[in-house]
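Intended use. Records such as the DUF2520 domain-containing protein entry shown here are meant for training and evaluating sequence-to-structure methods. They are not intended to support clinical decisions.
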Amino acid sequence: MSRQNIGIIGAGRVGAVLGAAFARSGHKVIAAVGVSAASKSRAELLLPGASLLPADKVAAAADLVLLAVPDDALPGLVKGLVETGALRRGQIVAHTSGAHGLAVLAPVTGVGAEPLALHPAMTFTGTEADLARLPGISFGVTAPDHLRETAAALVADLGGVVEWIAEERRPLYHAALAHGANHLVTLVNEAMDRLRDAGVHRPEQVLAPLLGAALDNTLRLGDAAITGPVSRGDAGTVEKHLHALESVAPSSVPPYLALARRTADRVIAAGRLRPIDAEPLLDVLGSHSRASERAA
């Protein structure tokens, strides 16, 4: 596709990096919004030559307006851009939200602009290191039929792969990513905290090879990758885990119980643990769940 003059509204971790990637592919990032000291610094590093302007000025100057703001801020931003007359016929207005689709951009179509939902399935630090992670990642894209070719070309310019997401499935798509990635960070940090409680001085060194292998096996093998005491129905071991957590870190008990029960459900459904063999384990999980609820 032809090269675009791009405006970035939201020079945060995602917007600044995508802007830099577009610039590397031959587009021109002409302006960006940077309010905080961090976003201004990020724009200076990743978007050199882009003018820092108010949102309406950025939108008015661009052919492609990229909205990279928090999900809850997006509707108000779109409404404000339309009301100030910053948008015009023929512009592409794209947002990077995973949770939203095209509905949030409905106001822009009233002035003849083209809506596009363009979400990178990646976690960002807002540094140059992110640029090396972009090639080959998936972008959850929702677009009008007539804009699909343009959307695919933009994703290709970013080095990504298109995954078409139906409008009504955007919340489910985003929930899956948040559940997998964001909650994984919480889970790993919980594991590192408990290892420190156990006297391990470098928990990241202990966990890195274990978690790397677990993730690789899971992506290749699915539920067949599940190992550990729950998958074996080892009720006594799980009971010891729970007593240890209740003593040292009671706030870790509810998430352990929830994940252990879900793991049990999956291995039972996969036929790896017979329901009759799972009964002692489920009894342990149930009794501790009830005790946890009473203590809450």
